[in-house]
Amino acid sequence: MDSIWVLDMKRYNNLWNQLISFENIFLAFRNAVKGKGNKPYVLAFVMNLEHNLVQLQSDLVNKSYQPGKYNTFFIYEPKKRMISAAPFWDRIVHHCLINIIGPIFEATFIQQSYANQVGKGTHRAIRDVQSAMRLDKYVLHCDIKKYFPSIDQIKHSFQSWLGHAKQAHTYALRKGLLKKISFKRNG
Asked: pTM to 2 decimals?
């Protein structure tokens, strides 16, 4: 089946063909390389750009694409946080997915959702919070220590985001990408 159902029960067809199109893969590469143009892994990929993109498309078309191992490390600014960085090839596939299904799911998000959306982000979130603070007397500021690493992220992702997918190919691809992420519990 080459369709997806979303919360509003609208059906979106032909997503797999859009996802594996060379145009989408090239756009995904351009998005993945932003701000990383001088990194050695990007330069190595660019050395054989056409071959690598055609190979990635072939792997997706043949459903033989296998996500790589994530590099998990900690950063300490402003506080200790665990980061799981995907290999560059996987980042391109992530962008392939988000190029096609991102707008479908973003349409179902609440207005106060800001992260990783075009035209939104930290500055808009700050502006909206400041505007809301002018209307209300009380504000709760809290930080739940190590909250993100403590939740079952794969289960949550499947239930809240992937659970709406009826398209076998894109569902399997997203499932494979999520399984590669290391979710270690801290303290």
From this structure: 0.71
